[in-house]
Amino acid sequence: MAGRGPAPKDPSTRARRNRGPEMRVIQGQRAPQPPLPKFKVRNPDTGRLVNFVWPEATKRWWKEWGESPLAEDFGATDWSFLLDTAVLHAKFWTGNTSLAGELRLREAKFGATPEDRLRLRIQYELADEAEDRGQRRRAKRRAEAPKDDPRKVLRAVK
C-alpha cells in the first residue's frame, strides 16, 4: 500500500497545468524599412497647412531602428506601428513631453531597452563573441579528451 490520503488527480483534469497557451506559428514575411513620410500639418498660429519637419533626433532614431538586428524580423505591420511611433517621437522631441509614457510603451513592444528584451526573451549575441565561445568549448573538449583513445588501437581480429 503506497502513501496516505486520496490518490492524486489525473493531470489532464487539473485546473492549473503550469503551461501557457499553445503558440500559433504563422509564416512571416520581412518588410523593408520605409522612409519617414512627408506630410502636412496645420500651423496653430496661422491655420495654414505646412510641411512637417522631422526633428534630427527622430531621424537618428528611425535610422537606428532600421539598423537594429531586431528589425530583421519586422513585417509591414511592425513598420506601420513604428511609423506612428515616430510621429509621437517627433512630437516628444519638439516639446510635448506628455507623450513620454506612450512612447516608452510603444518602444518596449519592440525590445528597445535591455529590460524590454529580457521580458520578450530576446538576447543579443555578437558574432565574434559566439565564435570565441565556440572555439573555447572545442578547445576544452580536446583538452579533456582521453589521450589514449582505445578506438585508435582496436583492430579487427581475423
What structural category do the secondary elements indicate? mainly alpha
Number of domains: 1
Q: Number of DSSP strands?
A: 2
Order the strands across the largest sheet as they lie in space: 1-2
Overall, the morphology is flat
How large is the count of helical segments?
5
- What share of residues are in beta strands? under 5%
Main pleated sheet: 2 strands, antiparallel
H/E element sequence: EEHHHHH
Helix content: 25-40%
Average per-residue pLDDT, rounded, comes to: 86
The separation of the N and C termini measures 57 Å
Oligomerization: single chain
Taking pLDDT < 50 over at least 5 consecutive residues as the criterion, the unreliable ranges are none
What is the C-alpha radius of gyration, as a whole number of Å? 28 Å
Q: Could you explain the architecture of this structure?
A:
The chain has helices at residues 56-67, 76-93, 100-108, 114-119, 127-144, and strands at 40-42, 49-51. The chain is mainly alpha-helical. The chain has one domain (31-143). A hairpin with a 6-residue loop joins strand 1 (40-42) and strand 2 (49-51).
